[in-house]
Write a structure and sequence with these properties.
This protein is an alpha/beta fold. Helices cover about 40% and strands about 15% of the residues. It binds manganese (II) ion (MN).
Length: about 350
């Protein structure tokens, strides 16, 4: 039932790269999410069970609500630990990139990868991989990179090396990339995999609570403020958008990760098709956008066309380098230009 991602030549390439490698670096994308953390740390636990010395390096910090993931405390963060991360990266025998395959997802680590001559494996589920790799495992149909990792480890025949910790990481990635199995999650294989992870002893109810019922009082109040005072609902386009400014973030003692999931909320409105959030970055002069949709509406297309971004059909993101007012005007233009898809959508 599970996909076998490696054909025979890829399989021998895998062994050629991994069997002789001791120091294996695992990299996830900037602003690591549950899947980036889940997929890299699942691979981390597996490689440890193989008696390798894996190290997970992320371009920057992961949100607080992921600190329960087994192994997360050992993750190196380039922003806080540049010298150490660089030293360790230089000693790598092999590099595995997980949950990204585009140049702009890893900040300054881009250059590290560019200059590195180490064998490189990429495992990802985003469309149109750009990065070069000795071995590319890409499947845009997979719900998450963590799902691909599960299938790979199973194909490699290392089921016995998959610990409960490893299973927890995989479940976390699959759950968070599907919003708790509410979108992009209709393939039966997903539930077969979950049944196998449960056999490993994971507590999936607890993982859900750790991720989704882990808000601060401030984040709860921010959520109420946004829905009450900031959300704009455009009835005729069945679309909502809202913005968060830096001042508002200060007012609600905003912490990294507090914006996570807010963009999904307006999709609970009956008949709603598209939701867009705009947030001023806390450090840089730019606006971060998130898009979520239901049904066939292509968030990734809109994000690429208007917001310098991309992603998946139902979940995408982008960046605008302008003021909030200008960004809101661009969002309104994008919505109007996509009117035919929004007005006729029978989702
Ligand atoms: Mn992912």
């Amino acid at each position: 039932m599970l996909k076998k991602y490696l054909n025979s030549s890829m399989l021998s390439l895998w062994h050629q790269i991994i069997d002789d490698a001791q120091n294996i670096i695992l990299i996830g994308h900037s602003s690591p999410d549950g899947d980036a953390m889940g997929a890299t740390l699942a691979m981390f636990h597996y490689l440890k069970a193989l008696k390798k010395s894996p190290v997970v390096i992320m371009p920057n910090t992961f949100p607080d609500f992921l600190c329960w993931i087994p192994g997360s405390q050992e993750v190196l963060n380039v922003q806080h630990n540049y010298d150490k991360a660089w030293r360790i990266f230089q000693k790598a025998d092999a590099v595995i990139c997980l949950d990204f395959s585009a140049y702009n997802r890893i900040d300054e680590m881009n250059q590290w990868l560019d200059e590195s001559r180490r064998p490189r494996i990429i495992i990802d589920h985003h469309l149109n991989p750009e990065l070069n790799a000795d071995l590319l495992v890409s499947d845009p149909q997979a719900c998450s990179t963590s799902e691909i990792v599960y299938c790979l480890l199973t194909q490699l025949g290392y089921d016995n090396l998959m610990t409960k910790e490893c299973a927890m990481c995989i479940y976390c990635g699959m759950m968070t990339d599907t919003g708790g199995f509410i979108y992009n999650s209709n393939r039966p294989e997903i539930y077969y995999i979950i049944s196998q992870l449960l056999e490993k002893g994971i507590d999936k109810d607890k993982i859900y609570r750790n991720v989704y019922n882990n808000y601060s009082v401030n984040r709860m109040r921010l959520m109420g403020y946004i829905l009450n005072e900031k959300m704009v609902y455009l009835e005729e386009y069945k679309t909502s958008y809202f913005s968060i400014t830096r001042d508002e973030m200060l007012r609600f003692h905003f912490k990294k990760g507090d914006a996570e999931g807010l963009v999904n909320l307006p999709l609970s409105i009956k008949g709603s098709i598209l939701s867009v959030s705009l947030r001023e970055d806390s450090e840089k002069e730019l606006i971060r956008l998130s898009l979520r949709s239901v049904g066939e509406f292509p968030c990734n297309k809109m994000a690429a066309e208007y917001f310098n971004g991309g992603g998946h059909l139902n979940a995408a993101g982008g960046t605008l380098y302008c003021t909030m007012e200008e960004a809101i005007a661009i969002v309104n233009k994008a919505i109007k230009d996509y009117a035919p898809l929004l007005k006729d959508n029978k989702c």
